[in-house]
Amino acid sequence: MTTRYVVTDVPRVEVRGVKNGIHSPPISAAKRWFMIQDTHTGGSIGDGYEDREEAAAHCERLNEKFKS
To answer: pLDDT digit string (tens) for 16-39?
Structure first.
């Protein structure tokens, strides 16, 4: 049986609108983040994680649901 969910390392992209005179918080220094990909559908789960271990732990929990 193949693993359904895997952690992938992807470039981090943030899109922000800028209005004159309004200051927005600084963009995170992280240039990469970790996404959980569904290998059956090609989709991703969640918004992404800055910590690989946190993403891997969530991925393990998801994979446990599909073991049978």
So the answer is: 777 888 877 776 666 889 999 999
